[in-house]
Protein: 14-3-3 domain-containing protein
Amino acid sequence: MRERVSNEFRMKVEARIKDVCHRFLDVVESELLPSLAHEADEEEKVREMVRLLKVKGDYLRYLAEITPNAEVDEVAEAAAQAYNAGLQISKAHLTPSSRESLGIVLNFSVFLHDVMNDRDAALKVANEAFESAMEEIVESKETRSEADGGLSDATLIMQMIRDNMDVWKKAGKKSGA
Structure:
């Protein structure tokens, strides 16, 4: 009895999560991304595009986490595409230590580790971004603008990236990987 009630509750929660995710993704695709065409400030347009692609990847990741194994590949591929698109835009147009660049790397690396079960890819993405951001911060410490999120935002997100890398490396050593 208890297991049946637990399964029913889990199914209801998952259905609600799926509904919220799909509705949000519809808004991103049909309203938010198209509205960027009207943004006059090119830098703000790029930042917003990266933020939207990050949250698109995030919501697809949430779906992937509750999608049955037989169907997860399609959802995971869509999430990877969103994260990759945002990452490429951030690399081309933003500084490595911008809030948007670091934010998408943080979430993409978690996706790679947790959903794709690819610790090596997660570590590679995270480490490359961490090193690039560190180098950029050292070189431009005096000239950082608040548009890039300021040094405190960068260091906070970088610490989260480093913490994830440390946990993933330790888990890999324990499992013999």
Observations:
- Residues 2-35 form the longest helix (34 residues).
- The chain has six helices and no strands.
- The domain at 2-175 is CATH 1.20.190.20 (Delta-Endotoxin; domain 1).
- The chain has a mean pLDDT of 91.
